[in-house]
Write a structure and sequence with these properties.
Distance between the termini: 33 Å
Radius of gyration: 21 Å
Structural class: alpha/beta
CATH topology of the largest domain: Rossmann fold
Order of helices and strands: HHEEEHEHEHEHHHHEHEHH
CATH class of the largest domain: Alpha Beta
Number of strands: 8
Length: 329
């Protein structure tokens, strides 16, 4: 870690004396503040978690994960003829039926929708000793992979591939699975966030709570906060026996498959600048829509018909076509 900090400082043309001071400060901050950061990182925000009601004509299914758990999902059939299949990633804590308000217009337009509950959520099996947070871990990514595998195994699978539609945490897990699986042809996300691009801005805020050296804090570059934050993530990961993957590092691999990112302009959890920073990690073709006045996971409630029109138009353009986008190996 010392060599990494030295290298980063020298790349930024920082004088040697300042570099050594930064290294010393790094170890001081880690020793003094990492316990606070780890505690705050693991606090669950107060969300209004939607719960949907079971749909009578839906398929209520189970499918396995690679480590032997059974996950629950619901497969909703759209109007015939079918225009495509969409995998729906749920927000943190919601049940599989909460996809209906988001997807009813897609069902009416002829799309099939499959929503699933990750481990330790809804009626899916729980992994002993694992308590999910709002942050995406390798467990949720594995569950997204299992859901994709299930869709590929169905007798009525779409040979042209599927679309991804995810909300918040479900969007992040879905994107992490999608970047490595070319069967995902296009992606719509609502309120998606990455661990690193969210953590670093909050690091500055957390340090202000426990340290009043504001002038010093203002001089520290973002990468410096990032190194301290990554060390804190490693500590939390060890304690919780999981790994926090970094969506920002791999999102560029989604291209040339299209991405539509929707975010709330009034989101106080994942601020618009955090979403914009993640969006910058993606490559074309991509589109960013900031919904005026919408808070976290409230874009549909605020934008209504315009929200549905944009989502449906995206899937009409990129999923309902017979020819999928070619993804290079």
């Amino acid at each position: 870690m010392t060599l990494i900090l030295l290298g980063l400082a020298l790349m930024c043309s920082v004088p040697l004396a300042v570099t050594l001071w930064l290294v010393g400060l790094y170890f001081y901050l880690c020793r003094t503040y990492l316990p606070f950061m780890a505690r705050i990182f693991q606090e669950k925000p107060i969300f209004i978690i939607p719960r949907g009601q079971e749909v009578a004509n839906a398929e209520d299914v189970q499918f396995p994960t690679t480590d032997g758990l059974q996950l629950r999902g619901c497969y909703l059939h759209g109007q015939k003829p079918r225009r495509g299949v969409i995998l729906f990633g749920l927000e943190f804590g919601s049940n599989r039926w909460s996809c209906v308000p988001y997807c009813q217009h897609l069902l009416d337009a002829g799309y099939d929708v499959f929503a699933y509950e990750a481990r330790n959520q809804g009626d899916s099996d729980s992994l002993p000793g694992y308590e999910p947070l709002q942050w995406v871990t390798d467990y949720e990514v594995d569950d997204a992979r299992a859901a994709i595998k299930y869709l590929k195994s169905r007798p009525d699978r779409d040979p042209h591939g599927i679309g991804l539609y995810g909300i918040s945490k479900g969007a992040g897990a879905g994107l992490l699975a999608a970047v490595e699986d070319p069967s995902i042809r296009c992606c719509v996300t609502d309120g998606v966030f990455a661990t690193y691009t969210t953590l670093v801005p909050y690091m500055r805020h957390w340090f202000r709570i426990y340290n009043n050296q504001y002038k010093v804090q203002g001089l520290l570059p973002s990468w410096y906060y990032g190194r301290v934050g990554l060390e804190g993530l490693k500590q939390v990961a060890r304690e919780r026996n999981c790994h926090f993957p970094h969506l920002d590092r791999v999102l560029g691999k989604l291209a040339p498959r299209p991405l539509l990112m929707i975010h709330g302009e009034a989101d106080t959890y994942i601020k618009p600048e955090m979403a914009q920073a993640l969006f910058e990690c993606a490559r074309e073709p991509k589109e960013f829509w900031l919904v005026e006045g919408a808070k976290h996971n409230q874009n549909l409630a605020v934008a209504g018909e315009e929200y549905e029109r944009r989502v449906r138009a995206f899937f009409d353009a990129h999923l309902a076509t017979a020819t999928p986008t070619t993804v290079s190996a």
